[in-house]
Amino acid sequence: MGHELEKVFPTNPKDYQLYEEVGEGVSATVYRAFCIPLNEVVAIKVLDLERCNNDLDGIRREVQTMRLIDHPNVVKAYCSFPAGHQLWVVMPYMAGGSCLHIMKFAHPEGFDEPVIATLLREVLKALVYVHGEGHIHRDVKAGNILIDADGAVKLADFGVAACMFDTGDRQRARNTFVGTPCWMAPEVMQQLHGYDFKADIWSFGITALELAHGHAPFSKYPPMKVLLMTLQNAPPGLDYERDKKFSKSFKEMVSTCLVKDPKKRPTSEKLLKHHFFKHGRSNEYLARAILDGLPPLADRFRALKGREGDILLNRADEDKEQLSQREYIRGISAWNFNLEDLKSQAALIQEETPNSELDVNHGTNYANDSVQQIASYETDDVANVVTSRKEKFQDLQDFDGFLSTAFPIRPLKALEGYFDVSEDEIKDASPNGQVGMQSDSESRMLMNQGSHEVNSESKNTRPENLENSTFVVKHLDVSGRQKIFSGSLLPERVLSHAKNTALPTERDELHQKYHCERNYSGPLLSRHSSNHSSVNLNDESSEGRVFQRKGRFKVTSSDAGNKVATLVSPAVGLTASATLEAATILPTLQFIFQQNVIQREQIVKLLKLVEQASGHHVEPSGLGGGELSQLGLQPSLTAIKERELQSYILQLQQQVDNLADELQITKLKNAQLERKLYSFQKERDDINEIDIPKGEYSQ
Ligand SMILES: Nc1ncnc2c1ncn2[C@@H]1O[C@H](COP(=O)(O)OP(=O)(O)OP(=O)(O)O)[C@@H](O)[C@H]1O
After folding, report:
1. Ranked by mean pLDDT, which of 176-185, 203-212, 337-346 comes out on top?
2. Would you list the DSSP string of 375-410?
3. Which of 48, 55, 57, 139 is catalytic?
4. pTM, two decimal places
5. Cβ neighbours of residue 563 under 8 Å, at least 6 residues apart?
6. What are the residues facing 553 on neighbouring strands?
7. Would the ipTM clear 0.95, i.e. be above it?
8. Is 691 a catalytic residue?
């Protein structure tokens, strides 16, 4: 088990040769690489610190956990070090890639039962170890199950793992969660009583279904809807009719995991004893069954990426508005989600599901389902709120100050002590992108990047008076290419058209037309504007208690009692009575409330635009003054400030929480070191004991 530890991996980027890209996640790109001094092929996960400014805790935890871990079924980190503005994490190279990629490439309908039993047994062994060490993985899914060339299976990605060690209570329920919604346990979504490692057992059950069908249940729906479906529907499972090819024991095993009450779920240890896992075979069998005949990982990865590109290209001639709606409804933009996962899932669905089922936006399945409509409405709300806040931030004169307090330390400095980052590297770091880091002001610049780019983009393409009405969020994607997602309260072209040519009446018609066609008034938001958007999203969370973090979903507990609530969807004029836990509904209501305030502000801006276009001169003060208050349109700056403060407090609370986690990890490390020291001392004493008689003898 410990043999990998014996090698000392170099911490200089020059000692590695990067080969092809073999994987892409929310926060990182993974390359096959070669460690020159050790003459060994490795995988290097490259994280761009500039893009992770506000998620250093997550990175720190991931690397920390990966380095402490030592189990044949868990991917460990050999070492980690900075390289320019990046952080490199060196890991064993898993030549087979992830189960998700293998399924997408060669088994779109899912794997056969013996393969599933083998894969899951190995993953379960990993979970027994991880739970035994006091961790909750929190992101068990096919995309995080990696296979080596010889069929060895390892659980990867500790980006959102949590430590259960806390004031001595290893199983303490927690009040926050990060995860991918399809795999997320109901208690995690509800946040009523916290959760523990049993959340991984739920995700494990969902992963079993994913491996059996080629995709996770509900994977074609937008995130908010997944949350509601998971909470309201009966747990998903293998169907006795539809899934005839699977054994009774498999079905039973899945249903044991997918019980809503976590207390009724088995522990990983107990589950491992389930007779289903007796069907598991050897690693060699696995290699033969799913890896034989596959092209090298990098080729597969390229092919899959190409396919995703084709899917997008095929849609290129679609009406752009529809396309953005489609992406929007999948939650990519609105929830700032794990884009790769969503893209992958979308690709799987497109291959397997008829279009009618797919088109959740226009499809009839949606039409009469009020809960679904509420879900999509909520998704809109979030996007609107988030982007509108982006705009508001630009208006705030003290934004810079706010950011500097929100992220007071420089990235590499913050990571010092956690990776192989030396004091010297930090001191000598040059701001020009060589091994080093940015200054405080540069950090803030990076934090501000999204908003500055919004301005510059606007300046290039539109006159002043349209800048504040249209948002263009520009960002760098993994490969450094720039991507632009655009959106506005009205579609951009409508605004442009209005600006250039249209008479007021035409504009009204266009406004009417597009407003009807697009039920979503919110702008699109890119996931890679994470620096900025996370701040904003956290901002929202101060009231909505729903966060985005590291491209995933994060919910914090809102201490609400159990209440019965009725949801009304103003977007569609439908009323849905839902007996939901208040904690589930509150965020929605809060979003709607916020949305209201923000939409009023948007209306003010539009009014201004209309007035400007029609030649009326509007004094800025006039907008916020008596006329608007008469209309009830005066935006409340105090409320905005208050929300920002709440958000800041929440961020601080999170930081305290994270520090407590780290303290526990350090304590754990200390305990390990003490144990080692003790055994060394014991060895030394033993040797001494042997030496003493020798001495006596020689005297
Ligand atoms: N050691 C490895 N060997 C081979 N491929 C790997 C390795 N680690 C990761 N990958 C590939 O790279 C992808 C992304 O890696 P990873 O999941 O660690 O990144 P991430 O940004 O943390 O992802 P996520 O989107 O789950 O947060 C994986 O899904 C997998 O296909």
Report:
1. 203-212
2. HHHHHHHHHHHHHHHHHHHHH-TTHHHHHHHHS-S-
3. 139
4. 0.53
5. 581, 582, 585
6. 179, 548
7. yes
8. no
